[in-house]
Amino acid sequence: MLCQNCGKYEATTHIKQIINGDMAETHLCPDCANHLGYGDMFSGFDFSLSGLLSGFLGDMLPPVSLGPVTRCEKCGCSFDDIARAGKVGCPECYRTFYDRLLPSIQRIHGKISHAGKTGQSAGNREKIETSGEKIAKLRVQMDEAVRVQNFERAAEIRDEIKKLEGENINE
Amino acid sequence: MSKWYAEKGSQSETVISTRIRLARNIDDFVFPCRLDKEGKAKVNELVKKAVFECCGDKYSYISMKDLSHLQAVSLAERHVISPEFTSCEEGTGLIISDDESVSIMICEEDHIRLQVMKSGLALDEAYKIADETDSALDEKLSYAFDERIGYMTSDPTNLGTAMRASVFLHLPALTACGQINAIANTVSKLGLSIGGAYGSRKKPAGDIYQISNRITLGITEETAVANLKSIVMQLINQERSAAEREIKNPALEDKIYRSLGVLENARMLNADEFMELISYVRFGASAGLLDIPVERINALITDMQPATVAVSNEDADTVAKRDARRAELVRQALAG
Ligand SMILES: [Zn+2]
Ligand SMILES: [Zn+2]
Q: Are A137 and A160 in the same domain?
Protein backbone atom coordinates (compact mmCIF):
# COMPACT_ATOMS: atom_id res chain seq x y z
CA MET A 1 0.00 0.00 0.00
CA LEU A 2 1.28 3.47 -0.91
CA CYS A 3 1.42 6.45 1.43
CA GLN A 4 -1.81 8.47 1.30
CA ASN A 5 0.04 11.74 1.75
CA CYS A 6 2.80 11.61 -0.86
CA GLY A 7 1.67 8.63 -2.90
CA LYS A 8 5.30 7.72 -3.51
CA TYR A 9 6.51 5.41 -0.80
CA GLU A 10 5.26 2.28 0.92
CA ALA A 11 3.00 3.07 3.89
CA THR A 12 4.35 1.58 7.13
CA THR A 13 2.32 3.56 9.67
CA HIS A 14 -1.39 2.79 9.90
CA ILE A 15 -3.48 5.09 12.03
CA LYS A 16 -7.02 4.38 13.10
CA GLN A 17 -9.09 7.09 14.72
CA ILE A 18 -12.70 8.05 15.29
CA ILE A 19 -13.64 11.13 13.27
CA ASN A 20 -17.19 12.39 12.84
CA GLY A 21 -18.94 9.28 13.95
CA ASP A 22 -16.84 6.78 12.09
CA MET A 23 -13.51 5.04 12.10
CA ALA A 24 -11.02 6.62 9.73
CA GLU A 25 -7.81 4.91 8.64
CA THR A 26 -4.73 6.71 7.44
CA HIS A 27 -1.73 5.01 5.87
CA LEU A 28 1.56 6.88 5.80
CA CYS A 29 5.19 6.34 4.85
CA PRO A 30 7.77 6.90 7.63
CA ASP A 31 8.71 10.38 6.36
CA CYS A 32 5.16 11.65 6.08
CA ALA A 33 4.23 10.07 9.43
CA ASN A 34 7.08 11.97 11.04
CA HIS A 35 6.23 15.15 9.21
CA LEU A 36 2.56 15.01 10.17
CA GLY A 37 3.37 14.39 13.82
CA TYR A 38 2.71 10.68 14.02
CA GLY A 39 6.36 9.93 14.31
CA ASP A 40 6.66 9.52 18.02
CA MET A 41 6.63 5.96 19.10
CA PHE A 42 3.24 5.29 20.42
CA SER A 43 0.58 2.67 20.24
CA GLY A 44 -1.69 3.05 23.20
CA PHE A 45 -3.61 6.12 22.18
CA ASP A 46 -7.20 6.40 21.23
CA PHE A 47 -5.92 6.35 17.78
CA SER A 48 -3.73 3.41 17.30
CA LEU A 49 -0.47 3.43 15.60
CA SER A 50 0.64 0.14 14.26
CA GLY A 51 3.69 -0.38 12.17
CA LEU A 52 6.19 1.07 14.59
CA LEU A 53 7.84 -2.25 15.14
CA SER A 54 7.61 -3.25 11.50
CA GLY A 55 9.36 0.04 10.73
CA PHE A 56 12.21 -1.00 13.00
CA LEU A 57 12.33 -4.63 12.03
CA GLY A 58 11.93 -3.97 8.33
CA ASP A 59 15.51 -2.68 8.27
CA MET A 60 16.73 -5.97 9.59
CA LEU A 61 15.12 -8.29 7.07
CA PRO A 62 17.71 -10.20 5.10
CA PRO A 63 17.44 -9.71 1.31
CA VAL A 64 17.31 -13.46 0.65
CA SER A 65 16.63 -16.03 3.31
CA LEU A 66 19.56 -18.24 4.14
CA GLY A 67 18.78 -21.87 4.78
CA PRO A 68 15.56 -23.14 6.31
CA VAL A 69 13.32 -20.51 7.91
CA THR A 70 12.96 -20.78 11.68
CA ARG A 71 9.35 -20.82 12.79
CA CYS A 72 7.79 -20.47 16.22
CA GLU A 73 6.74 -23.95 17.27
CA LYS A 74 3.58 -22.74 18.92
CA CYS A 75 2.04 -20.33 16.39
CA GLY A 76 3.99 -20.95 13.22
CA CYS A 77 5.24 -17.35 12.83
CA SER A 78 8.52 -16.76 11.07
CA PHE A 79 10.59 -13.70 11.92
CA ASP A 80 9.54 -12.24 8.55
CA ASP A 81 5.89 -12.55 9.59
CA ILE A 82 6.60 -10.68 12.81
CA ALA A 83 8.62 -7.96 11.09
CA ARG A 84 5.95 -7.39 8.47
CA ALA A 85 3.02 -7.29 10.90
CA GLY A 86 4.87 -5.43 13.64
CA LYS A 87 3.17 -7.88 15.98
CA VAL A 88 4.41 -10.97 17.72
CA GLY A 89 2.31 -14.12 17.26
CA CYS A 90 2.41 -15.67 20.73
CA PRO A 91 4.43 -15.70 23.98
CA GLU A 92 6.65 -18.47 22.57
CA CYS A 93 7.75 -16.17 19.70
CA TYR A 94 9.60 -14.07 22.26
CA ARG A 95 11.64 -17.14 23.26
CA THR A 96 12.18 -18.31 19.69
CA PHE A 97 13.23 -14.94 18.24
CA TYR A 98 14.55 -13.20 21.33
CA ASP A 99 18.03 -12.53 19.87
CA ARG A 100 16.56 -10.80 16.84
CA LEU A 101 13.80 -8.92 18.68
CA LEU A 102 16.19 -7.64 21.31
CA PRO A 103 17.64 -4.65 19.37
CA SER A 104 14.15 -3.32 18.57
CA ILE A 105 12.90 -3.77 22.12
CA GLN A 106 15.99 -1.92 23.27
CA ARG A 107 15.30 0.91 20.82
CA ILE A 108 11.73 1.22 22.05
CA HIS A 109 12.28 0.99 25.80
CA GLY A 110 15.95 1.56 26.49
CA LYS A 111 16.19 -0.91 29.31
CA ILE A 112 15.40 -4.62 29.14
CA SER A 113 14.76 -5.44 32.72
CA HIS A 114 11.20 -5.64 33.91
CA ALA A 115 10.76 -3.62 37.10
CA GLY A 116 6.99 -3.59 37.60
CA LYS A 117 4.33 -5.92 38.91
CA THR A 118 5.08 -9.63 38.90
CA GLY A 119 2.51 -12.02 37.49
CA GLN A 120 1.55 -15.09 39.48
CA SER A 121 2.87 -17.36 36.76
CA ALA A 122 6.38 -15.93 37.30
CA GLY A 123 8.95 -18.68 37.84
CA ASN A 124 6.79 -21.33 36.17
CA ARG A 125 9.01 -21.17 33.13
CA GLU A 126 12.63 -20.49 32.43
CA LYS A 127 13.53 -16.85 32.08
CA ILE A 128 13.96 -15.64 28.50
CA GLU A 129 17.63 -15.53 27.49
CA THR A 130 19.71 -14.62 24.49
CA SER A 131 21.51 -17.51 22.84
CA GLY A 132 24.78 -15.93 24.06
CA GLU A 133 23.58 -16.24 27.64
CA LYS A 134 22.37 -19.78 27.03
CA ILE A 135 25.74 -20.75 25.54
CA ALA A 136 27.63 -19.24 28.47
CA LYS A 137 25.49 -21.24 30.88
CA LEU A 138 25.96 -24.46 28.88
CA ARG A 139 29.75 -23.95 28.85
CA VAL A 140 29.77 -23.88 32.64
CA GLN A 141 27.69 -27.08 32.67
CA MET A 142 30.01 -28.70 30.14
CA ASP A 143 33.10 -27.87 32.21
CA GLU A 144 31.38 -29.33 35.24
CA ALA A 145 30.53 -32.51 33.31
CA VAL A 146 34.17 -32.84 32.20
CA ARG A 147 35.35 -32.27 35.76
CA VAL A 148 33.24 -35.18 37.04
CA GLN A 149 34.35 -37.18 33.97
CA ASN A 150 30.80 -37.51 32.60
CA PHE A 151 32.07 -37.27 29.01
CA GLU A 152 28.85 -38.51 27.47
CA ARG A 153 26.93 -35.59 29.06
CA ALA A 154 29.71 -33.18 28.09
CA ALA A 155 29.41 -34.25 24.45
CA GLU A 156 25.65 -33.72 24.50
CA ILE A 157 26.12 -30.23 25.86
CA ARG A 158 28.82 -29.53 23.28
CA ASP A 159 26.35 -30.48 20.50
CA GLU A 160 23.72 -28.25 21.99
CA ILE A 161 26.19 -25.35 22.05
CA LYS A 162 27.13 -26.03 18.43
CA LYS A 163 23.49 -25.98 17.46
CA LEU A 164 22.92 -22.64 19.18
CA GLU A 165 26.04 -21.18 17.59
CA GLY A 166 24.93 -22.46 14.19
CA GLU A 167 21.56 -20.73 14.50
CA ASN A 168 23.35 -17.53 15.34
CA ILE A 169 25.46 -17.65 12.19
CA ASN A 170 22.43 -18.43 10.06
CA GLU A 171 20.47 -15.49 11.28
CA MET B 1 -27.20 4.22 36.79
CA SER B 2 -25.24 7.45 36.33
CA LYS B 3 -22.01 7.15 34.38
CA TRP B 4 -18.57 7.78 35.86
CA TYR B 5 -18.00 10.89 33.74
CA ALA B 6 -20.93 12.79 35.27
CA GLU B 7 -19.07 12.95 38.59
CA LYS B 8 -16.95 15.84 39.77
CA GLY B 9 -13.27 14.93 40.03
CA SER B 10 -10.09 16.45 41.41
CA GLN B 11 -8.46 19.29 39.39
CA SER B 12 -11.62 19.26 37.34
CA GLU B 13 -11.16 22.81 35.94
CA THR B 14 -8.39 21.42 33.73
CA VAL B 15 -8.51 17.63 33.98
CA ILE B 16 -11.48 15.94 32.37
CA SER B 17 -10.63 12.33 33.14
CA THR B 18 -8.01 9.71 33.92
CA ARG B 19 -7.62 6.29 32.37
CA ILE B 20 -5.46 3.26 33.19
CA ARG B 21 -5.20 0.47 30.65
CA LEU B 22 -3.47 -2.89 31.25
CA ALA B 23 -2.72 -5.44 28.54
CA ARG B 24 -2.64 -9.13 29.50
CA ASN B 25 -2.48 -12.45 27.64
CA ILE B 26 -3.30 -15.97 28.68
CA ASP B 27 -0.24 -18.20 28.45
CA ASP B 28 -1.78 -21.22 26.73
CA PHE B 29 -3.16 -19.31 23.75
CA VAL B 30 -1.48 -17.63 20.81
CA PHE B 31 -2.19 -13.90 20.53
CA PRO B 32 -5.51 -12.79 18.92
CA CYS B 33 -3.85 -11.94 15.56
CA ARG B 34 -2.93 -15.66 15.15
CA LEU B 35 -5.87 -17.15 17.07
CA ASP B 36 -8.69 -18.99 15.25
CA LYS B 37 -12.43 -18.60 15.90
CA GLU B 38 -12.62 -21.50 18.36
CA GLY B 39 -9.63 -20.19 20.29
CA LYS B 40 -11.16 -16.73 20.54
CA ALA B 41 -14.45 -18.19 21.75
CA LYS B 42 -12.53 -20.09 24.44
CA VAL B 43 -10.66 -16.97 25.55
CA ASN B 44 -13.98 -15.08 25.75
CA GLU B 45 -15.44 -17.83 27.93
CA LEU B 46 -12.39 -17.99 30.22
CA VAL B 47 -12.23 -14.24 30.79
CA LYS B 48 -15.98 -13.96 31.24
CA LYS B 49 -15.98 -16.76 33.81
CA ALA B 50 -13.02 -15.27 35.68
CA VAL B 51 -14.58 -11.79 35.85
CA PHE B 52 -17.98 -13.02 36.95
CA GLU B 53 -16.46 -15.30 39.60
CA CYS B 54 -14.16 -12.72 41.13
CA CYS B 55 -15.98 -9.45 40.61
CA GLY B 56 -19.61 -10.39 41.06
CA ASP B 57 -22.61 -9.11 39.22
CA LYS B 58 -21.89 -5.45 38.52
CA TYR B 59 -20.57 -6.43 35.07
CA SER B 60 -22.22 -7.36 31.83
CA TYR B 61 -20.81 -9.12 28.79
CA ILE B 62 -21.36 -7.98 25.22
CA SER B 63 -20.38 -9.96 22.15
CA MET B 64 -19.11 -7.18 19.86
CA LYS B 65 -20.65 -8.67 16.73
CA ASP B 66 -24.11 -8.14 18.29
CA LEU B 67 -23.60 -4.36 18.32
CA SER B 68 -24.51 -2.06 15.45
CA HIS B 69 -21.69 -0.07 13.91
CA LEU B 70 -22.99 3.14 15.51
CA GLN B 71 -23.22 1.55 18.94
CA ALA B 72 -19.61 0.43 18.65
CA VAL B 73 -18.38 3.82 17.46
CA SER B 74 -20.27 5.45 20.31
CA LEU B 75 -18.32 3.27 22.77
CA ALA B 76 -15.10 4.46 21.13
CA GLU B 77 -16.24 8.09 21.36
CA ARG B 78 -16.73 7.52 25.09
CA HIS B 79 -13.20 6.03 25.19
CA VAL B 80 -14.57 2.71 26.45
CA ILE B 81 -13.07 0.81 23.51
CA SER B 82 -10.30 1.50 21.00
CA PRO B 83 -11.00 2.58 17.39
CA GLU B 84 -9.88 -0.85 16.09
CA PHE B 85 -12.43 -2.58 18.26
CA THR B 86 -15.27 -0.85 16.39
CA SER B 87 -14.77 -3.29 13.51
CA CYS B 88 -16.55 -5.79 15.82
CA GLU B 89 -14.86 -8.85 14.43
CA GLU B 90 -16.17 -12.28 15.33
CA GLY B 91 -14.64 -13.48 18.59
CA THR B 92 -14.23 -10.06 20.19
CA GLY B 93 -16.09 -9.29 23.40
CA LEU B 94 -16.52 -6.54 25.94
CA ILE B 95 -17.11 -6.75 29.66
CA ILE B 96 -18.31 -3.52 31.16
CA SER B 97 -19.33 -2.35 34.64
CA ASP B 98 -22.70 -0.70 35.23
CA ASP B 99 -21.26 2.81 35.41
CA GLU B 100 -18.84 2.08 32.49
CA SER B 101 -15.83 2.95 34.68
CA VAL B 102 -14.29 -0.52 34.35
CA SER B 103 -14.22 -2.35 31.05
CA ILE B 104 -12.38 -5.26 29.50
CA MET B 105 -11.85 -5.67 25.78
CA ILE B 106 -11.45 -9.36 24.98
CA CYS B 107 -9.35 -10.37 21.97
CA GLU B 108 -8.43 -6.88 20.85
CA GLU B 109 -4.70 -6.83 20.07
CA ASP B 110 -4.14 -8.75 23.31
CA HIS B 111 -6.46 -11.26 24.99
CA ILE B 112 -7.27 -8.77 27.73
CA ARG B 113 -7.28 -4.99 27.72
CA LEU B 114 -8.46 -3.98 31.17
CA GLN B 115 -9.37 -0.34 31.52
CA VAL B 116 -10.39 1.87 34.44
CA MET B 117 -11.71 5.40 33.95
CA LYS B 118 -12.20 8.08 36.58
CA SER B 119 -13.43 11.64 36.47
CA GLY B 120 -10.79 14.33 37.07
CA LEU B 121 -7.18 13.62 38.02
CA ALA B 122 -7.26 10.24 39.78
CA LEU B 123 -4.23 8.25 38.63
CA ASP B 124 -3.56 6.51 41.96
CA GLU B 125 -7.20 5.59 42.53
CA ALA B 126 -7.64 4.34 38.98
CA TYR B 127 -4.42 2.32 39.14
CA LYS B 128 -5.45 0.78 42.45
CA ILE B 129 -8.73 -0.49 40.97
CA ALA B 130 -6.97 -1.75 37.84
CA ASP B 131 -4.29 -3.47 39.93
CA GLU B 132 -6.80 -5.19 42.23
CA THR B 133 -8.99 -6.33 39.35
CA ASP B 134 -5.91 -7.57 37.50
CA SER B 135 -4.63 -9.53 40.52
CA ALA B 136 -8.04 -11.12 41.01
CA LEU B 137 -8.10 -12.21 37.36
CA ASP B 138 -4.52 -13.48 37.59
CA GLU B 139 -5.74 -15.96 40.26
CA LYS B 140 -8.06 -17.54 37.70
CA LEU B 141 -6.15 -17.11 34.45
CA SER B 142 -2.53 -17.96 33.88
CA TYR B 143 -0.95 -14.85 32.33
CA ALA B 144 1.95 -14.93 29.90
CA PHE B 145 4.73 -13.36 31.96
CA ASP B 146 8.52 -13.39 31.95
CA GLU B 147 10.82 -12.05 34.66
CA ARG B 148 12.93 -10.21 32.14
CA ILE B 149 10.43 -8.73 29.68
CA GLY B 150 7.39 -8.62 31.98
CA TYR B 151 3.87 -9.15 30.66
CA MET B 152 4.14 -10.56 27.16
CA THR B 153 2.11 -8.53 24.68
CA SER B 154 1.40 -8.80 21.00
CA ASP B 155 3.11 -5.47 20.35
CA PRO B 156 6.59 -5.25 21.91
CA THR B 157 6.04 -1.52 22.59
CA ASN B 158 3.83 -2.62 25.52
CA LEU B 159 6.20 -5.14 27.13
CA GLY B 160 7.04 -4.79 30.82
CA THR B 161 4.19 -3.36 32.84
CA ALA B 162 1.96 -3.32 29.73
CA MET B 163 0.33 -0.32 31.37
CA ARG B 164 -0.78 2.80 29.57
CA ALA B 165 -1.85 5.62 31.91
CA SER B 166 -3.61 8.58 30.30
CA VAL B 167 -4.94 11.91 31.47
CA PHE B 168 -7.42 13.90 29.38
CA LEU B 169 -6.86 17.65 29.73
CA HIS B 170 -8.69 20.74 28.54
CA LEU B 171 -5.99 23.26 27.61
CA PRO B 172 -7.71 26.19 25.87
CA ALA B 173 -5.36 28.92 27.15
CA LEU B 174 -2.14 27.09 26.24
CA THR B 175 -3.65 26.39 22.81
CA ALA B 176 -4.75 30.01 22.33
CA CYS B 177 -1.33 31.45 23.20
CA GLY B 178 0.42 28.91 20.99
CA GLN B 179 2.57 27.39 23.73
CA ILE B 180 1.08 23.93 23.27
CA ASN B 181 3.46 22.89 20.49
CA ALA B 182 6.57 23.65 22.52
CA ILE B 183 5.03 21.79 25.45
CA ALA B 184 4.24 18.77 23.29
CA ASN B 185 7.89 18.66 22.21
CA THR B 186 9.16 18.81 25.78
CA VAL B 187 6.67 16.22 26.94
CA SER B 188 7.72 13.75 24.27
CA LYS B 189 11.36 14.13 25.29
CA LEU B 190 10.34 13.10 28.80
CA GLY B 191 9.09 9.74 27.58
CA LEU B 192 5.44 10.76 27.41
CA SER B 193 3.10 11.31 24.48
CA ILE B 194 0.52 14.01 23.94
CA GLY B 195 -2.10 14.38 21.23
CA GLY B 196 -5.70 15.38 20.57
CA ALA B 197 -8.28 13.24 22.33
CA TYR B 198 -11.06 13.85 19.81
CA GLY B 199 -10.98 14.07 16.07
CA SER B 200 -7.69 14.14 14.25
CA ARG B 201 -4.42 14.33 16.07
CA LYS B 202 -3.06 17.48 14.48
CA LYS B 203 -6.09 19.64 15.22
CA PRO B 204 -7.43 18.55 18.59
CA ALA B 205 -11.18 19.21 18.70
CA GLY B 206 -12.31 21.24 21.72
CA ASP B 207 -8.68 21.83 22.86
CA ILE B 208 -8.85 18.47 24.64
CA TYR B 209 -5.58 16.57 24.85
CA GLN B 210 -4.59 13.11 25.98
CA ILE B 211 -1.22 12.69 27.66
CA SER B 212 0.16 9.22 28.34
CA ASN B 213 3.26 7.34 29.43
CA ARG B 214 5.21 5.69 26.65
CA ILE B 215 7.91 3.57 28.28
CA THR B 216 6.67 0.36 29.89
CA LEU B 217 9.79 -1.78 30.31
CA GLY B 218 12.32 -1.09 33.08
CA ILE B 219 9.97 1.14 35.06
CA THR B 220 7.47 0.33 37.82
CA GLU B 221 3.79 1.17 37.52
CA GLU B 222 4.10 3.50 40.52
CA THR B 223 7.00 5.45 38.97
CA ALA B 224 5.27 5.71 35.60
CA VAL B 225 2.13 7.02 37.30
CA ALA B 226 4.11 9.44 39.50
CA ASN B 227 6.02 10.82 36.48
CA LEU B 228 2.83 11.34 34.53
CA LYS B 229 1.19 12.99 37.54
CA SER B 230 4.03 15.43 38.05
CA ILE B 231 4.00 16.47 34.37
CA VAL B 232 0.22 16.83 34.47
CA MET B 233 0.48 19.05 37.58
CA GLN B 234 2.96 21.26 35.74
CA LEU B 235 0.64 21.47 32.75
CA ILE B 236 -2.24 22.41 35.05
CA ASN B 237 -0.19 25.25 36.55
CA GLN B 238 0.95 26.45 33.14
CA GLU B 239 -2.62 26.36 31.86
CA ARG B 240 -3.76 28.33 34.92
CA SER B 241 -1.24 31.11 34.50
CA ALA B 242 -1.90 31.26 30.76
CA ALA B 243 -5.64 31.44 31.52
CA GLU B 244 -5.12 34.31 33.98
CA ARG B 245 -3.31 36.25 31.26
CA GLU B 246 -5.67 35.37 28.43
CA ILE B 247 -8.89 36.01 30.32
CA LYS B 248 -8.00 39.71 30.69
CA ASN B 249 -8.30 40.02 26.92
CA PRO B 250 -11.75 41.53 26.22
CA ALA B 251 -11.87 39.79 22.85
CA LEU B 252 -11.67 36.40 24.59
CA GLU B 253 -14.32 37.35 27.13
CA ASP B 254 -16.52 38.39 24.24
CA LYS B 255 -15.88 35.09 22.48
CA ILE B 256 -16.84 33.13 25.60
CA TYR B 257 -20.18 34.91 26.02
CA ARG B 258 -20.95 34.74 22.31
CA SER B 259 -20.23 31.01 22.30
CA LEU B 260 -22.61 30.54 25.21
CA GLY B 261 -25.18 32.62 23.34
CA VAL B 262 -24.98 30.42 20.28
CA LEU B 263 -25.10 27.17 22.28
CA GLU B 264 -28.11 28.40 24.26
CA ASN B 265 -30.04 29.42 21.16
CA ALA B 266 -28.90 27.42 18.16
CA ARG B 267 -31.44 25.13 16.46
CA MET B 268 -28.82 23.19 14.49
CA LEU B 269 -25.35 22.30 15.76
CA ASN B 270 -22.84 20.10 14.01
CA ALA B 271 -20.17 18.27 16.00
CA ASP B 272 -17.25 20.50 14.94
CA GLU B 273 -19.05 23.74 15.75
CA PHE B 274 -20.21 22.30 19.06
CA MET B 275 -16.67 21.29 20.06
CA GLU B 276 -15.28 24.71 19.16
CA LEU B 277 -17.95 26.60 21.12
CA ILE B 278 -18.09 24.29 24.12
CA SER B 279 -14.35 24.73 24.56
CA TYR B 280 -14.86 28.49 25.04
CA VAL B 281 -17.76 27.88 27.40
CA ARG B 282 -15.72 25.39 29.41
CA PHE B 283 -12.89 27.92 29.51
CA GLY B 284 -15.31 30.53 30.87
CA ALA B 285 -16.70 28.09 33.42
CA SER B 286 -13.32 26.93 34.73
CA ALA B 287 -12.07 30.54 34.91
CA GLY B 288 -15.10 31.42 37.06
CA LEU B 289 -16.67 33.68 34.46
CA LEU B 290 -19.69 31.44 33.86
CA ASP B 291 -21.64 29.62 36.53
CA ILE B 292 -21.93 26.21 34.87
CA PRO B 293 -20.57 23.10 36.62
CA VAL B 294 -17.65 21.70 34.58
CA GLU B 295 -18.78 18.12 35.15
CA ARG B 296 -22.01 18.96 33.34
CA ILE B 297 -19.94 20.29 30.44
CA ASN B 298 -17.76 17.14 30.51
CA ALA B 299 -20.79 14.90 30.30
CA LEU B 300 -22.13 17.05 27.46
CA ILE B 301 -18.88 16.75 25.48
CA THR B 302 -19.07 12.97 25.78
CA ASP B 303 -22.77 12.74 24.99
CA MET B 304 -22.70 15.08 21.98
CA GLN B 305 -20.24 13.10 19.86
CA PRO B 306 -21.79 12.10 16.49
CA ALA B 307 -22.37 8.37 16.95
CA THR B 308 -23.41 8.83 20.58
CA VAL B 309 -26.10 11.35 19.59
CA ALA B 310 -27.29 9.00 16.87
CA VAL B 311 -27.44 5.98 19.18
CA SER B 312 -29.33 7.75 21.94
CA ASN B 313 -31.96 9.03 19.49
CA GLU B 314 -33.34 6.53 17.07
CA ASP B 315 -35.17 9.26 15.13
CA ALA B 316 -31.93 11.10 14.43
CA ASP B 317 -31.18 9.08 11.32
CA THR B 318 -29.95 11.93 9.12
CA VAL B 319 -27.14 14.44 9.71
CA ALA B 320 -29.63 17.33 9.76
CA LYS B 321 -31.82 15.59 12.33
CA ARG B 322 -28.76 14.81 14.45
CA ASP B 323 -27.63 18.43 14.35
CA ALA B 324 -31.09 19.55 15.40
CA ARG B 325 -31.19 16.97 18.17
CA ARG B 326 -27.72 18.00 19.36
CA ALA B 327 -28.80 21.66 19.52
CA GLU B 328 -31.87 20.67 21.52
CA LEU B 329 -29.88 18.57 24.01
CA VAL B 330 -27.29 21.31 24.46
CA ARG B 331 -29.98 23.91 25.15
CA GLN B 332 -31.54 21.63 27.76
CA ALA B 333 -28.21 20.88 29.45
CA LEU B 334 -27.17 24.52 29.62
CA ALA B 335 -30.55 25.55 31.01
CA GLY B 336 -29.78 23.14 33.87
ZN1 LIG C 1 4.53 9.69 2.23
ZN1 LIG D 1 4.71 -17.81 18.26
A: yes
CB atoms within 10 A of CB B194: 27
Are B260 and B245 within 8 A, CB to CB? no
Q: Is A150 among the domain residues? A: yes
* Pairing outcome for strands B150-151 and B112-119: unpaired
| Whether residues A3 and A57 fall in one domain | no
Looking at the structure of chain A, the number of domains it has is: 3
- Residue A37 DSSP code: T
Looking at the fold, whether A41 and A53 belong to one and the same domain comes out as no
**How far, in Å, is the centroid of ligand 1 from the Cα of A58?**
17
pLDDT 10s digit of each residue in chain B, 336 long?
Answer: 567 776 777 888 999 999 999 999 999 899 999 999 999 999 999 999 999 988 777 899 999 999 998 999 999 988 899 888 998 888 999 999 998 999 999 999 999 999 999 999 999 999 999 999 999 999 999 899 999 999 999 999 899 999 999 999 999 999 888 888 888 888 877 888 887 777 655 567 889 988 999 889 999 999 999 999 999 999 999 999 999 998 889 999 999 999 999 999 999 999 889 999 999 999 999 988 999 999 899 989 989 998 999 888 877 778 899 999 999 999 999 987
Does residue B162 contact residue B216 with C-beta atoms inside 8 Å? yes
Query: Domain limits at A83?
Result: 49-112
| CB contacts, 8 Å: A13 with chain B | none
Any CB–CB contact under 8 A between B31 and chain A? yes
Distance CA B163, CA B18 (A): 13
Q: How many angstroms separate the Cα of B4 from the Cα of each of B1, B118, B218?
A: 9, 6, 32
Q: Is there a domain that residue A118 lies in?
A: no
Whether residues A21 and A67 share a domain: the answer is: no
Q: Does A83 touch chain B (CB under 8 A)?
A: no
Q: Which ligand is nearest to the CA of A77?
A: 2
ipTM: 0.83
DSSP track, B160-191: BT-EEEEEEEE-HHHHHTTTHHHHHHHHHHTT
B34's CB contacts (< 8 A; 6+ apart) are: A75, A76, A77, A89, A90
How is B231-283 classified by DSSP, letter by letter? HHHHHHHHHHHHHHHHTT-HHHHHHHHHHHHHHHH-S---HHHHHHHHHHHHH
Asked if residue A117 belongs to a domain, the reply is: no
